Amino acid sequence: MDFETLRASAKQEIEHIKNLAELEAWRVKYVGRKAELTLFLRSLAHMPLGERRAFGPKANALRKEFEQLHQKKLSSIGNQSQENYALDMTQPGTKYDIGHLHPVTQVKNELNDAFKFLGFEIYEGPEISSEGYDFDNMNFPDDHPARESMDTYWIKPESVGKSAGAKKGFEKLCLRPHLTGVSVRYMQTHKPPFRFVYPGRVFRNEATDAGHECTFYQYEALIVDKDISLAGGKILVSTILERVFGAQVTTRMRPGFFPFVEPGFEIDMQCLNCSGAGCSICGDGWVEMMPGGLPHPNVLAVGGIDPKQWQGFYINIGLDRITMMKYGIDDIRLLHSGDMRFLRQF
Amino acid sequence: MLISLRVLKKYISLPSRVSAEDIKLKLTTSTVEVEKIETQGKQFEHIVVGRVTRIAKHPNADKLKLVLVSFGPGVEQKEVVCGGTNLHEGMLVAFAQVGAMVRLHGQGDLVKLEKATIRGIESDGMICSAGEIGLADMFSRAEGTCMKSVCEELAESAEGEVVDLTNLKLPVGEKLARALGLDDVVFHIDNKSLTNRPDLWSHYGIARELGALYGVRVKSPAVYAKALSLNKNQKLKIVIQDKKACPRYIGAVIANVEVAESPAWLKKELAAVGMKSINNIVDVTNYVLMEIGQPLHAFDISLLRKGASKMPCIMVRKARAGETITLLDEEEKTLTKDMLVITDARDPVALAGIMGGMKSGIHDRTTTIVLEAANFDAMHIRRTSQALNIHTESSIRFEKALHPKLAELGMRRAVFLIKQLLPEAQVVGLYDRNYFKGEDNTIRTTYDFIEKRIGQIIGKKKIDALLTKLGFTIVSHAHGKTLRVRVPWWRATGDISIPEDLVEEVARMYGYDRVMEKQELVNLKKPAYQLAFDMESKIKTLLSMGCGMQEVFNYPWAEEGIAEKLGIVSGSIPHAGRPSRTLRDEWRFGMSPNGRESRYHGLRQWGSIELINPPAGKNRFLQNTLMPNLVKNVESNLRFFGECKLFELSRVYRTGIGIFDGCDVLPAQPKMLAGVVAGDAKQDLFFNTKGIVESIGSLCEGVLVSFAPEDGIGFLDPHTSMRIMANGRDVGYMGAMHDATLRKFDFHNKGVALFELDFEQLVNECSVVSTKKYQQLPKYPAINRDIAICAENDVRWQDMVSRMEHIDPIVAGIEFLSVYDLGNGKKSVAFRVTYRSDTKTLQDSNVVAAEQKIIRALQTHFHVEIR
Questions:
Q1: Is A133 in contact with B662 (Cβ distance < 8 A)?
Q2: pLDDT of res. B757
Q3: Tens digit of pLDDT for each residue in B106-121?
């Protein structure tokens, strides 16, 4: 094979090339799959060692040279064409679809991360639950008004089939009106000490408006240990809120009454919208953020935990509320709207 | 509940530095939530009572007058321009001084009044109409509060008239707010936060609490102090049949009563807490209710039937089924046998603890009354009040459990007030039926117990002091460790019964805000890896960030209209996935809507679960699939967007048994993952959706996603729908929506493809993510060769791949490139085969040989031509 002739003709031909089509033809001819040089290089494998040593490097060098020539010409033709066609660099780049997690999911993820860091396990319970777990176990008196259908969605017993609701004392089923019932399910199946969170949605038979929903989200945490106290719980609350809002927030703790805790409290957060001056969102500068308390001894007992040995700390974060406060959302119904004009903002 | 500061101050004198705001904060942070403070008459600042002394014509205007107004001796008179049509000399008017906030001509926002020159005459103030000082407005807004009764009359003035205060004989020069008695401060207390504190449902109760919070002595109410029994000539027979429901009944017979209008102070104080004045007797019962917290009732003794003893009779018993009573609000109620009533010798005269009857109440000519101060069991009252849906000031207090001792205090206070208002009145009979056994309300605990739960050393002395302030008695100490505490009677109705209750009392008195944050959270235990939650977050991230989908949240009920359009009728909802491990029974194969029996478990029917009290009729059924709500989301979003991609991960509900922790038996509630893709080309949408499902599979370690035919779901196009298999297990379905179904929605001519899979089953198939092990990069180069074939349309890609992929060990990969329709039932398919060996650089001949094997196989099995 005559490398020199090949080199000369290749060089001469490329000189006259004016456009990309001609250049491509040249490339096929000299370095393409069926080009003379390519075929020669492929055939090298079958040649005796001496010939391979003699021609191999030469052929490879020539191929490299051709590739360089091609590259050089390509860029010069490329430059020419740029002069003809002015690229408008202000046009938008390729558009990629980027979806969005629901804002409540985003806040839940942040809470999950924060709690996981503190060694909490994540737990979930059923959304259709029983009066036994959501009221009786929770120390609600028999005739507590929350049991009424004005507050709780009850399940038609005929519609659940034969088996569900069959357990004595747990016949009445409902959409859970709060998360706390879930904690007893955990307590009954785990040995203290433990700490866990159980996020989820809950349901109340309520008329909806900008501030009220019949389906909403809560995020609850429970620690049971030998000496977790009010004081220990307080630092948990500030750690978590700081994590979610990215800055220290001012809180206050005040008494609150819930049948399943004793003592119980409410934690208010200074309104971020008005910095506590009072505005249409908060009224008097404080926003109710989370109720909580030390588990009532009856609740620990029903969970199979000796209230004389163990104590605990509950907090229940209004996940929607905290999300709305974080993003400044003023209508809770938007969270269930499925409206992309809303969802794409987060 | 409304609490008047004026009434509070009758019982405690707080230091002068304590403002209403301070009280609000103190109560909120230590006891109950105060929602707001209403400062009466705040908007009447700079408005005073003036007397018109002279009226003259305005020199430059026909309808305006120059009016000279005086404010009493020693105060400069002022001349103002006024157009009031009812002006006359000697008239008392509401005069706004410069600086007052008024609504000019009764319209627009409140503005600050300034000196003005009207038609050349300077006017130094203004004589106001009702609209200008917002009387009418205040009346309508302040329904049920202090303003109502006072403002009602004044607000009713004709167009062009100014407020005429002449008849009220107000002191000239006095501030209007004070002159009208609107200078009280009213606290609005959140009733919910009072649920567990029956002792706080009164002014005296709040005063007692504030006394403890501020360390101030609380005065006792002035009461009738004689013995509660006066039985010389028995005037009334009292029979308590149900002593559990009525542990105490005190009845007083008071003669020489003259029913009349109440004095001004009583009216004003009732008005401040939103109560209407009726007459002196009823007003006293209402006043005691809000002052002391004990509900009372007054009967006219002449309207009570006599029994066998020839005496007027009061009986407390359960109602007879079907018995009726016409209540004070003139409504007739039919009673059931678990309701507690007060009767005379024959019929019910009151619904115990809730409302009196119409026929036996006092009226203008009543001269002898029976005054009732009783104690009723909370649960009875709550049940009856809920059953009849009657909630009164009386029932909301009894519901919270009042102490029988309170009845005594209420009776003593009421008799005192009646005698104060009507000195002629005479107590001629007084009977106390007391079946309450004073229980020993002491709690034993330790200081250590209290401090350990609060998490802070508070000190024994301090704890004793805090409890004592609240009325607790420290009965005894033992070794300085344990203590026995007696609960004050007003807290001993269930509110305080266990040591934990004392923890709360100490903590709130000490101050929640003073409890230091304490680092008890350190936990060196490694949190367990939780596969399901990890997968949930990874898959959600994939779908949103990777696939460009929007996450949505929907309600748990399926809207029947949408479900019907999808051919889903309640009770036969096609479902994704085989019955999972969370199902034990009650699943069965079903028929598809078009009558074909489904292969591949295509359509399974589970019953839908129904709500007794749904939010709306169309939402009776809880969703059995996420699809109807997602489809509805698509429809509404396509109004604004040309395409949309949505997903939801939520639970659905169906008959069968769900496995959850706990000893109850619950229906199945599997978590489903569903997505919809809406846009233009149906084929693209289908493969787009398939790509999404495959990506989900690729995230799941140990899961091989494959597809099987699906023809059981009516809303899917049978030619473009498949079942989704995970490791060979049926977990869901995917496909393009059937054209007939598409037409039922307003999708703006877009197509829709969708998928739904049982998330819990999918996760069950996942193996725990193990740390990936690095694999050596290939040592020898790969060779790619493209093949294009011409095949019949029914030749399937997956079948060809299965023939090709193991045909030769050097076939390292087969990548689909393109397909297009050649017409005549044929298609062209192009794909790329990658050849590689782990042991050597491949020779041309090796590749050619393998390629030939592929071509032969395709020709033999699929009769394709190589293009």
A1: yes
A2: 95
A3: 777 778 888 888 888 8
**CB contact residues (below 8 A), chain A span 250-289, against chain B:** 252-257, 262-266, 283-284
- How close A16 gets to chain B, by Cα (Å)? 33
* B651/A127 touch (CB, cutoff 8 Å), yes or no: yes
Average pLDDT, chain B: 87
Best mutation site among A110, A112, A128, A176 for testing chain B: the one with the most B CBs within 10 Å?
A128
Give the SS3 label for residue B730: strand
Question: Across the interface, do A229 and B548 touch by the CB < 8 Å criterion?
Answer: no
pLDDT (tens digit, 9 = 90+) per residue, B509-566? Answer: 999 888 877 776 666 667 778 899 999 999 999 999 999 999 999 999 978 888 888 8
Q: pTM here?
A: 0.80
Tokens of B73: 């001796």
Higher pLDDT, A9 or B573: A9
pLDDT digits (tens, 9 = 90+) for A209-256: 888 899 999 999 999 998 889 988 888 888 888 888 888 888 888 998
56-95 of A, contacting B, C-beta below 8 A = none
For the record, the structure tokens of B713 come out as 């779901």
Per residue in B187-212, is it b (16+ CB within 10 Å) or e — as a string? bbbeeebbbbbbbbbbbbbbbbbbbb
Looking at chain B, the whole-number percentage of residues with pLDDT higher than 70 is 91
Is residue B457 classed exposed, middle or buried when 0-12, 13-18 and 19+ CB atoms within 10 A define those classes?
A: exposed
Span B440-454, pLDDT tens digits:
789 999 999 999 999
Domains defined for chain B, CATH in brackets:
2-40+185-214 (3.30.56.10), 42-179 (2.40.50.140), 237-434 (3.50.40.10), 443-514 (3.30.56.10), 531-765 (3.30.930.10), 783-866 (3.30.70.380)
Optimal mutation site among A44, A102, A117, A152, interface B, most CBs of chain B within 10 A: A102
Per the listing, tokens 């009657």 go with: B390
- Contact (CB<8Å) A125/B515: no
Residues in Cβ contact with A158 at an 8 Å cutoff, skipping those fewer than 6 apart: B610
Question: Is residue B616 less than 8 Å (CB to CB) from chain A?
Answer: no
Q: Topology of A103-125+187-343 in CATH?
A: BirA Bifunctional Protein; domain 2 (3.30.930)
Rounded Cα distance between A263 and B135, Å, is 45
